[in-house]
């Protein structure tokens, strides 16, 4: 009986599938001994090498096969897999594209092209994922990857159905279940999300991301002790520091017992680990040491999108910069650029996207522009501080949108003010040198969508409406206790709370329970969830007579928005940076008398104002005009002070060098 090449190849494939690799290799070699250029044998030998973890050898064999049969899509698909394993993503994109062109019926080609584009940022992966799913809709991984792309391109909520399909196909895939849990939480389906997170932890008890997700969910409900336990478990597992550490550091700002010293300790723990992981040597900067020349300023942030708080103060700054003194660069780590991103880009001299690059590559990209002063605008997300550990510029500064010290020795300065960081109290608790600006740590740009100030709500309602437009985790135990005392002291008053997560029935029920335990009936409370129309949002804020700032994590832009709508805000100056943001905003707006030094003073201020309708009405009428004349809205003065500060730091560096 004659054994053909086809027989040998068929037997080899069956052996390879059965895990008998040595037998398969022997059969393929018998074919190649007869015909050294037989493309199927070369290709299958390449797949063997790829399975053994030798992608270089695999690529060589597959390339030999392609030299003989360059129009075979399956060979290009295997080549793409080898290139992906070698981290040669741009070449993998080309190989996957060749697969889809030559063999459009192969679902893995479309899916692989989508993955490669997602990895490189070289195009939109969604159309390719959709084509792959149309050909093979039963792949759990395909649906999960499609969900990830939807999450990045649209929203976490939009990704939910795709994650759900993935889990339906493979109910044991902890990654897809965890992604589904996150989408459910973002969709105000907290109880279902809780069950999914627990399902992940039953499968993988040491899943730090699931524990962090659980912590975020408990935090959303205001259950801070349960959240703290989950986050602590997550960071005990996660190595090196990643998302769980980042979420925990932000979460700690909600805890009433955390002080300047506590935040310094925890952020420095994180910072030391990040700095120890930086492998690249410290850069040598060749910036021209001329203290009087035009300075290159680089603002770095992922938050340059429409609707983000950052644009409310960054846009005036960019507009007022003196271009004879500074050249302004903006580096956007933005996954989904939009009209806000474009608005920032137009306001800068140079705008660069650094999204999709690793931290070392991001730093190298910024250094390539010869930036003199690099400014971190997003310290509230610890992951966005990491790039600064790689040294972007000779001078590195932490500016607005921070919640604590960065914890990084590589960032030399932090811009702040005396309200936020009291002299002699805060300084020991920062890795940075504090520079207190007279104009304050940031400015406020009034929202153009805001309607005119309305008449005082109490005039039509017959009762005073207290209010807060902050997220539920900020409603700490001490906050609810104090607000409940205020409601009890002002009979018939109401408390309006506006937060996106109040669209979740489980969040509302838990919050009602906490107020009920403090003696406040449900009919004294008004809950408002997400309001998608911007004017509607500001009208809802205007339905408040008197704003009550939560603590210790106080409001920032939310307090400014309230004052812009004629709503005075009572705030408490605490013992951490974030507990003093309200004191800075309200004082610089021209209302320092609304800043309380302790809870009893807060109570007395709120009750006295609620009992003084004439004063409330006067504040309502005059507040917007007073804001317009305040230092809080002095974009020009703030920008000039910033530029003076930049110049002084630049001269100091030139002299030291």
Structural Rg:
29 Å
On the 0-100 scale, what is the average pLDDT?
A: 94
Give me the number of helical elements. Answer: 28
Neighbour order of strands in the largest sheet: 3-2-1-4-5-6-7
Short overview:
By secondary structure, the protein is of the alpha/beta class. It has 28 helices and 13 strands.
Characterization of the model:
The protein is an alpha/beta fold and 657 residues long. Among the domains are: 218-276, no CATH class; 295-436, Rossmann fold (3-Layer(aba) Sandwich), CATH 3.40.50; 457-633, 3-Layer(aba) Sandwich (Rossmann fold). The strands form 2 sheets. The chain has a 7-stranded parallel sheet, with helices on one face. Helix 17 links the parallel strand 1 (295-301) and strand 2. Helix 1 (5-17) packs antiparallel against helix 2 (21-34) and helix 3 (39-51) packs antiparallel against helix 4 (55-68). The longest helix is centred in the last third of the chain and has 22 residues, at 635-656. The radius of gyration is 29 Å and the shape is globular. The model has no long low-confidence stretch (mean pLDDT 94).
Topology:
Blueprint: H1 5-17, H2 21-34, H3 39-51, H4 55-68, H5 73-85, H6 89-102, H7 107-120, H8 126-135, H9 140-153, H10 160-169, H11 174-186, H12 190-203, H13 208-220, H14 224-237, H15 243-251, H16 260-276, E1 295-301, H17 311-320, E2 326-332, H18 339-347, E3 350-353, H19 359-367, E4 373-376, E5 395-398, E6 413-416, E7 433-436, H20 457-461, E8 465-468, H21 477-489, E9 494-498, H22 505-517, E10 525-528, H23 534-542, E11 546-548, H24 557-564, E12 569-572, H25 581-588, E13 595-596, H26 599-610, H27 613-628, H28 635-656
Parallel strand pairs: 1-2, 1-4, 2-3, 4-5, 5-6, 6-7, 8-9, 8-11, 9-10, 11-12, 12-13
Helix pairs in contact: 1-2, 2-3, 3-4, 3-5, 4-5, 5-6, 5-7, 6-7, 7-8, 8-9, 9-10, 10-11, 11-12, 11-13, 12-13, 13-14, 13-15, 14-15, 17-18, 17-28, 21-26
